[in-house]
Amino acid sequence: MKRKSFLNNIGLLGGGLLLLPGSSLLQGCEYQPSERRTLKEEDIPLLDEIGETIIPTSESSPGAKAVKIGAFMYSIYKDCMPPENQAIFLSGLNDLDFRAATLYKTSFLEISADEKLELLEKLQLEAIALGESQEGADKPVPHYFDLFKSLTSYGYFTSEVGMTMARNYLPIPGKFEACINYNKGDRPWAT
User: How confident is the model at residue 7 (pLDDT cuts 50, 70, 90)?
Assistant: First the structure.
């Protein structure tokens, strides 16, 4: 008798779930970004994707992910970045995650390369506008995209890959030449 009533109740519960609106059932499946209070090693893949979107792999050289740019950015954040820039960087990661969830219903890691590029291009335009609005200020506050971009560029172009594959590299320079012809498409020299 108890078993029959239990099975009846389970059947009623299951049927009741089917009658609920579909949105409430699917709401648990929608990506909800969690707010970071500090940067952790688990965020390195996200930083790698940001870096790879800024400096992608090309025919002539690997992209930022190949130089482990995420680990570099994490290390600089943790060991070298002033607290006010750490706060900007962290709130920027949270904002980026929130924007990806709002626009694409998933995390930045899961969206397509074109969507990543589109999102970062919007951020770059915001960063330019912020920079222009702060012209002449004693201590301008950087946009978080400027921090992402500068760390990516610095980490990439000071790495072995950036020095030897993305740039022309001459480990032992010859004579000094003050003026060297530059042709369109030539890689810049690593110094």
Answer: low
